[in-house]
Hints:
Blueprint: H1 2-14, H2 52-56, H3 61-66, E1 92-98, E2 116-122, H4 133-136, H5 146-159, E3 167-172, H6 175-186, E4 193-197, H7 202-210, E5 214-218, E6 220-221, E7 224-225, H8 227-235, E8 259-262, H9 276-289, E9 292-296, H10 322-329, H11 334-337, E10 343-348, E11 360-365, H12 366-376, H13 385-398, H14 402-430, E12 435-437, E13 445-450, H15 473-491, E14 496-497, H16 505-511, E15 513-518, H17 527-541
Parallel strand pairs: 4-5, 4-8, 8-9, 9-10
Antiparallel strand pairs: 1-2, 3-11, 6-7, 10-11, 12-13, 13-15, 14-15
Helix pairs in contact: 6-7, 6-12, 8-9, 10-14, 14-17, 15-17
Amino acid sequence: MLREKLLRLEKQRAHSEPLPSGPSPYTSSSFFKTPTATPKPKAKSWNHLFSNAALNQGTSVLKAFARSKSLSPDTISLGTGRPSAEFYPWTSLSMHTAATTSSNSNPTTSPPPQTTMTTTCSITDTSPSAYNLAAALNYGYAAGSPQLVRFVTEHVELVHDPPYADWETCLTAGTTAALDTVLELFCDRGEDTLLVEAHTYAGALDAARARGLDVLGVGMDEEGLVPEELDRRLREWDGARGGGGGKGERKKKKKKPSVLYTIPSGQNPTGATQSAARRRAIYEVAERHDLYIIEDDPYYFLQLGAAPALHQTTPPPTTNDANDTYLTSLPPSYLSLDTSGRVLRLDSASKILAPGLRAGWLTASAPVVAKFLARTELGAGAPSGPSQVLLYKLLDEAWGGHAGLIGWLRSLSVRYRRRRDVLVEACERYLPSVCEWTVPAEGMFLWVRVGGAKWPGAGRPGGCGGEEGGGGGESLSLAIEDRIFTQAQEEGVLVSKGSWFAADDEAKKAGGVNFRLTFAAAPLDALDRAVSRFGAAVRAVYQLD
């Protein structure tokens, strides 16, 4: 099946117009999408959900002029403030990249062998298919270079195949910057409430609050966001929630939330992954309440599989088409379920390639992407040109296209699975019975829950912030959390406090004592030792030794 899709993409490339060239060439996903046998419906309009800023957002006059197509090739430009390439101190780039895994090979749990491939990019290379370095070092179009936009468009079609016609994808300068812009497009300061999981990415919470938004956490279970809780929140919405500012200030009514931010796969911080049925149920709630979904999915491709049996270290068996098997294992994204264009999907290179690239891609309906690009032109401007060169040369040339990328993602998943298994085995070995966790099937996080009620000081007058009879639950949980956090540092291990990710006060009160453990950063041979130290910290605070 994958082979057929790749052949279709190759055929589409062969019959496409030449890639746009020159400085800051205009490009669009519509140039590169394959025609479908059955016409798809168009997305709904989301103008009624746009913020005042988005409704007033126009296109940059200078940027529109700079990419004008009405000029003849022999026109001499005295109108744009772009330095000539002769003033750049770089003339070429040479990149040595790691090899990827072939389609049918069985990746190992160890890093790939130090086989490298070399690609180059030069200012003097002006062939039609080349990614010219002069263009990469100049100001770029906000959507990205034609070469990379073509690749991510094909990737989105290959993996998600959105079920409506007028979807677009564009590059971003990383998910954090993109999310901040998206919140500006859909939310008005002091008027809007952002719906999120009860515990979620702290950067998203910070971005929302910095924009003057109220944040409302929605209940979770082991599969992440609970659709019944989301529906209840929206049905029973109290327009006065959130209120105004200081004392004596009249409360301003808040309108019903219209935007949901969710991390559906390997959720940060809990590691939860929404099942296919769960995603469909949440999408149905969104349809019922006209809710727009921001799907932030950086861990989507880190497939870890089921919980391991103790001491199981062998990778999953290979198949005749391992890449097909890997793609089949991916859960349906919200984008792949989106029949009305109400999903904006954020993908990132940070967790699957390198965070320093500050690059990702965004997919949504064409009018939403147009608003995003118009705002980006007045902010970040465009993703880094050198980062785009690195990505294109790696993905389309060194790795030979989409099959190479999928092979890399498959190999990466096996290596992360090994790390997860080592961490989980260490938890079984070293953490006391007051600790509980659910083994993540995707991502890079393990969420450890510590029983606050089992702490020896719980229920004693003045005990660690608690009150007589176990009252003061929030202050008790925060105090225990802080003691364990501090003790863990003294033991020589750093973990993340669960309270850092709490969406609101209600989540802090109900959340208990939690810690996020990451198995992506530390050396593999240090994970066992790190968990041992964390276990020692919990035992010391709970007086279990």
